[in-house]
Design a protein that fits this description.
By secondary structure, the chain is α+β, with helices and mostly antiparallel strands. It has a 5-stranded mixed β-sheet. Helix 2 runs antiparallel to helix 5. The longest helix is centred in the C-terminal third of the chain and has 34 residues.
Length: about 180
């Protein structure tokens, strides 16, 4: 910025009819925008959380858990703490998923149905299928987020009220200037 430009702005007379510091209210100038920012800060996560709860089923973002399977060598054991499960102890849904995972190049499958051995498979277990040993564990629970869907409209209302709070000082100055101009006529 050149010195000529700063001199021009310093010499500009104050705009008549616009309220300045003396006429502005402290609450409308500082408190309302501050509360507006707080409402926006609280409203955004509420709206995102509430919106996610509403669309998670539609977008298949949650559902049945998936397992992954890894073939083990003859004496290989993933860990001393890993238990063993008989194939017959698995539920039918777990058996189907295990067979799908064994045949899958990704070695993963979704358990579509009842999981009787959820706790054991969370830690991982060795399961023998047709003479081959596999390390089986739950790869993802894919559980649905539980929250009140009402959070979305509450968050949106908070955001809108926050925007009004942030815009209060310029709106107040415009309205006060308009009122002063009318009174001067």
């Amino acid at each position: 910025m050149s010195s000529d430009e700063s001199d021009d702005t310093a010499e500009d007379p104050p705009v008549e009819g616009e309220p300045t510091e003396s006429g502005e209210s402290f609450a409308l100038t500082y408190v309302a925008p501050f509360l507006g920012v707080l409402l926006i800060a609280v409203g955004i996560p509420l709206a995102i959380l509430g919106g996610y709860v509403v669309v998670q089923d539609t977008l298949n973002l949650c559902g049945d858990p998936s397992i992954d399977v890894r073939a083990l060598g003859d004496e290989e054991r993933p860990s001393a703490a890993v238990g063993e499960l008989e194939y017959g102890e698995l539920s039918q849904a777990e058996q189907r998923a295990l067979e799908q995972a064994i045949g899958s190049p990704l070695e993963e499958a979704t358990v579509e149905g009842e999981m009787e051995n959820r706790d054991v498979l969370l830690e991982g277990a060795v399961v023998e299928v047709d003479g081959e040993r596999y390390y089986v564990r739950i790869a993802s629970l894919n559980s649905c987020l539980r929250a009140e869907p009402l959070l979305f409209p509450i968050g949106m209302v908070g955001i809108l009220l926050g925007i009004v709070g942030v815009l209060t000082p310029p709106i107040y100055r415009k309205m006060a200037g308009f009122e002063e101009r009318i009174q001067q006529r």
